[in-house]
Specification:
heterodimer; A: alpha/beta; Aconitase, domain 3; 2 domains; 5-stranded parallel sheet; about 30% helix; B: alpha/beta; Aconitase, domain 4; 7-stranded mixed sheet; globular
């Protein structure tokens, strides 16, 4: 057999059947479900008198809609409550395991999958959420799907797919001090554009990628979708196995040994073909912030707001002009002069323990600026518990952060956590779209350390000037 | 799903790149547990003023485009969130065909599963079509799916590419889940061999 990429290998191992035009039926090993994109799929099953083919391969959790204040007394918003109650009754009716809002294992769907050992290398993972790309950090082929596809997977444990092209993103050398996986993933998108990965699955390669922790790899792959890619992948290695070993749903005993033996074969062959290769030098990447309303609008913090006329393409010029109007920014302003009102630490991009540690490291012994209101939303109940045990929560609370219950929260503002019109936020989330964090709200994406620095100074700040990291 | 063989109508021009699904249908409409009635929320932030009244400048509020069945958009249409509500909202409003130079992968799949046709054309062609769409209600576009040809108001024909399988399902309004479930034996035999070779694939506890 000719040399294959990691993506080729996982794909080949999951083809159930092939149509004459190349459309394939792909087997799905893991399915994650949350309250916002599943109700209509369960209704469809019921309407057509269909069952779930293998309920043990689906795991459900509530995350998008729930408040991050105390939830023990239930949820006030009647629409949110209905959606959550519907997920609870659907999972009970169809026999799917479900983590409710009061379960310590509850959290953002893409945080709990890996945390529970549900996500495994070499598997196919889907969820009705675009940030399913996160799970690619484990060498799982993971991508977001729509509700019709959720129903298709529930009914058949398969999906109809056309194979994507292979794209390699190669990071040469080591990242500099103070530069994180978030800066890396934003720098990649700034280079490729938000449509640069469309129709492709990205494999991230190179020393800087191997050096990343599993948390960092999840941050990296999480935003593959913001670069337009179907999925992002990192080949599994000893770090991957160490992360998974002993997790509740990970294989045990002889199954574990057999799994690791197989997982070790999951890497691209020498000479495998990539349709597109993008190379970045790690040493050129600085801490990054976004200035506009697309994740590709990212620049080093040492830069300034660009002039829309500086873009060659007329469509991009129009987009940049609209972005600056929406963001209330003037071309030429130094990025580190932009004052902020809010800080949001959390999301499936940066809501893991490593992210909270990074924030604590920056703010320990300091106070957040008077003008700023800052919230921390741990990615799961288990992350929250660990952060409390490690003393991180105490550090953040002492600095003036609001310490919340887990969920998606202000990443998309489906719950009460939202920006007000024209409020400016330093956010560790993944999308700076118009209105994403609240109607009229202005989002600057950045790493947890950078958001922590902004919380302390009240403006976008190069974290390297604050700590010796 | 609804079949689509031919379609004729007015095209609303929306020459913006990176129109994301948050923009197509914002968060407040995602709390529904139904697929229906989302057309009212389509492009909410651009279509309505903060007090809820129509923004007369937005293309879908202009008289000529209130019954548009085509939308001509910029590059990377439908990027971002996987919410199928975006396709449901467009379809509920009456848009059955969107033309752009590229679409996000997830939105592309979602749209076809709801009886919509997405046409990818080079940006130059999209720019020309956008200019023609600006003529309003007299500028009729038509598409013939069988021959994969879009005819512009000036009579120019644009051939477009489409996977055979997607075309077949859309032409005949087929239920993809029912089609897949006909392959029960193939799926079962795949499962048997995969479980035998990789017993670790079944989640612990």
């Amino acid at each position: 057999m000719s040399a294959r990429t990691l993506y080729d290998k996982i794909w080949d191992a999951h083809v159930v059947s092939t149509e004459p035009d190349g459309t394939c039926l792909i087997y799905i090993d893991r399915h994650l479900v949350h309250e916002v994109t599943s109700a209509q799929a369960f209704s469809g099953l019921r309407h057509n008198n269909r069952q779930i083919r293998r309920p043990e391969l689906t795991l459900a959790v509530v995350d998008h809609n729930i408040p991050t204040s105390d939830r023990s007394q239930g949820i006030d918003d009647p629409e949110s409550k209905l959606q959550i109650d519907t997920l609870r009754s659907n999972t009970a009716e169809f026999g799917v395991e479900y983590f409710d809002a009061t379960d310590v294992r509850q959290g953002i769907v893409h945080i709990i999958g890996p945390e529970q050992g549900f996500t495994l290398p070499g598997t196919t993972v889907v969820c009705g959420d675009s940030h399913t790309a996160t799970h690619g950090a484990f060498g799982a082929l993971a991508h977001g799907i729509g509700t019709s596809e959720v129903e298709h997977v529930l009914a058949s444990q398969t999906l109809l797919q056309t194979k994507s092209k292979n794209m390699q993103v190669l990071i040469k050398g080591k990242l500099q001090k103070g530069v994180t996986a978030k800066d890396l993933t934003l720098a990649i998108i700034a280079k490729t554009g938000t449509a640069g990965g469309t129709g492709h699955v990205i494999e991230y390669c190179g020393e800087a990628i191997s050096d990343l922790s599993m948390e960092g790899r999840m941050t990296l792959c999480n935003m593959a979708i913001e670069g337009g890619a179907r999925a992002g992948l990192v080949a599994p290695d000893e770090k991957t196995f160490a992360y998974l070993k002993g997790r509740p749903k990970a294989p045990k005993g002889a199954d574990w040994d057999a799994a690791v033996e197989y997982w070790k074969t999951l890497k691209s062959d020498e000479g495998a073909h990539y349709d597109q290769i993008v190379i970045l030098e790690a040493k050129d990447i600085a801490p990054v912030v976004t200035w506009g309303t697309s994740p590709e609008d990212a620049l080093p913090i040492t830069g300034s707001v660009p002039d829309p006329q500086s873009f060659e393409d007329e469509h991009k010029q129009a987009a940049a002009k609209r972005s600056l109007e929406y963001m209330g920014l003037t071309a030429g302003t130094s990025l580190d002069e932009i004052e902020i009102d809010k800080v949001f630490i959390g999301s499936c991009t940066n809501g893991r323990i490593e992210d909270l540690r990074a924030v604590a490291k920056v703010v320990e012994g300091k106070k957040i600026a008077d003008r700023v209101s800052a919230m921390v939303v741990p990615g799961s109940g288990l992350v929250k518990k660990q952060a409390e045990e490690e003393g991180i929560a105490d550090i953040l609370i002492a600095a003036g952060f609001d310490w919340r219950e887990p969920g998606c929260s202000m990443c998309l503002g489906m719950n009460p956590d939202r920006l007000k019109p024209q409020e400016r936020c330093a956010s560790t989330s993944n999308r700076n779209f118009e209105g994403r964090q609240g109607h009229g709200g202005r989002t600057h994406l950045m790493s947890p350390a950078m958001a922590a620095a902004a919380a302390v100074t009240g403006k976008l700040t190069d974290v390297r000037t604050m700590v010796d990291s | 799903m609804k079949a689509l063989k031919e379609l004729t109508g007015v095209a609303a021009p929306l020459p913006m790149m990176n129109v994301d699904t948050d923009m197509i249908i914002p968060k407040q409409y995602l709390k529904t547990i139904s697929r229906d009635g989302l057309g009212k929320g389509l492009f909410h932030a651009m279509r309505y003023h903060d007090d809820g009244t129509d923004n007369p400048d937005f293309v879908l509020n202009r008289e000529a485009y209130k019954n548009a069945s085509f939308l001509i958009a910029g590059d990377n249409f439908g990027c971002g969130s996987s919410r199928e509500h975006a396709a449901w909202a467009l379809e509920d409003f009456g848009i059955r065909c969107v033309i752009a130079s590229s679409f996000s992968d997830i939105f592309y799949n979602n749209a076809f599963k709801n009886g919509m046709l997405l046409i990818k054309l080079p940006q130059d062609a999209v720019d020309t079509l956008t200019a023609q769409a600006e003529y309003g209600s007299n500028a009729k576009f038509s598409v013939d799916l069988e021959s994969q040809i879009l005819t512009a108001p000036d009579g120019t024909e644009h051939k477009f590419e489409l996977d055979e399988f997607k075309k077949h399902c859309l032409l005949n309004g087929l239920d993809e889940i029912a089609l897949t479930l006909e392959k029960e034996n193939t799926i079962a035999s795949f499962e048997k061999s995969s479980t035998q070779n990789h017993s670790w694939l079944t989640p612990a506890n």
